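Task: sequence design from structure.
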């Protein structure tokens, strides 16, 4: 059907264009604006219940997570790089005996502290990782050195330690990583029967961080001491790119925590990014479909934090709690522990 106007077809066409432009401008004005920067972190998922947390311990965790967030924010706010922010945040947590990373790493069955870490640059997809290290003060710094100072992605054991020492990274004797709390946890596990032992592995204190800087670059990193009582040089998902850590400027950055074997089998970190890229899923929907559905169906426990290129944040877990928090350029700073605070299983 033809449409006629007294002013003629040109005037009608011009009016239609102006109307479309006005609608477009209106839509743009209503769309959310990407924050100048954003950062999200976790300190592990597991059986974290308010009824088991005394006031002093809760304050200690809250203060340390807040310190880590503010450390990362200080870098991002001043125009710093997302990689620098991720490393700095994780180093704060590696220095704290509260978390299963660095100085707070759990013990293997042999009574050793064996640590893993990885980091990834969303700009280039470059990545670095270390596994099974025992004398590197900040495993996340070693992971970054592997990424920037070698042609490799993953170094392990004595080779990784030699590499770190040669590149001037901080080194410590094994005694530095010894803590009474983790030693007691190992002894308690050894005292349990085989049928009861799995119940002890309920708190996964792995730490991780994802950051988006002012230039739009995403970086992600993860650091852990692994599982209490682990055998045979076991390595989990934390140092494996695509399983425990992933970052791409095209989609998002991810850091995972939980039962590493399942995160490796499901390639969780990369799968989240792939669901966004190839299926057009939102960050939140992609994270929840993996953690709350597929991993639950496999009876796997854990969680993740993620941040997309638009500054949207997800903190998803299927355990009673997860130490977590985020900060944005809007001034919003949030720290949470328990499931009933949102973003995770209720308990």
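Answer:
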């Amino acid at each position: 059907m033809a449409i006629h106007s007294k002013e003629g077809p040109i005037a009608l066409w011009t009016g239609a264009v102006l109307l479309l432009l006005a609608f477009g401008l209106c839509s743009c004005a209503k769309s959310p604006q990407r924050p100048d920067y954003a950062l999200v972190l976790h300190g592990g998922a597991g059986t974290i219940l308010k009824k088991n947390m005394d006031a002093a311990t809760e304050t200690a965790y809250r203060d340390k997570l807040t310190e880590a967030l503010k450390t990362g924010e200080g870098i991002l706010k001043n125009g710093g790089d997302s990689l620098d922010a991720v490393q700095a945040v994780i180093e704060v947590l590696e220095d704290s005996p509260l978390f299963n990373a660095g100085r707070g790493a759990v013990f293997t069955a042999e009574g050793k502290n064996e640590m893993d870490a990885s980091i990834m640059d969303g700009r280039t997809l470059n990545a670095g990782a270390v596994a099974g290290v025992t004398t590197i003060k900040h495993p996340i710094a070693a992971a970054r050195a592997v990424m920037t100072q070698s042609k490799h992605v993953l170094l392990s054991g004595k080779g990784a330690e030699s590499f770190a020492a040669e590149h001037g990274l901080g080194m410590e004797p094994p005694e530095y990583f010894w803590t009474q709390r983790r030693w007691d946890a190992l002894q308690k596990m050894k005292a349990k029967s085989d049928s009861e032992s799995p119940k002890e592995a309920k708190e996964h204190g792995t730490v991780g961080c994802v950051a988006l800087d002012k230039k739009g670059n995403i970086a992600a990193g993860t650091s852990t001491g692994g599982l209490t009582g682990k055998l045979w040089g076991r390595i989990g998902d934390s140092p494996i790119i695509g399983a425990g850590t992933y970052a791409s400027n095209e989609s998002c950055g991810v850091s995972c925590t939980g039962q590493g074997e399942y995160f490796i089998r499901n390639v969780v970190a990369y799968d989240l990014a792939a669901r966004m890229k190839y299926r057009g899923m939102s960050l939140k929907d992609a994270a929840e479909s993996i953690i709350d559905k597929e991993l639950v169906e496999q009876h796997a426990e854990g969680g993740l934090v993620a941040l997309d290129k638009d500054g949207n944040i997800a903190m998803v877990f299927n355990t009673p709690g997860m130490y977590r928090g985020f900060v944005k350029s809007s001034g919003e700073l949030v720290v949470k522990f328990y499931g009933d605070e949102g973003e995770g299983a209720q308990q």
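Residues 1-7, 16-31, 195-201 have pLDDT under 50 and may be disordered.
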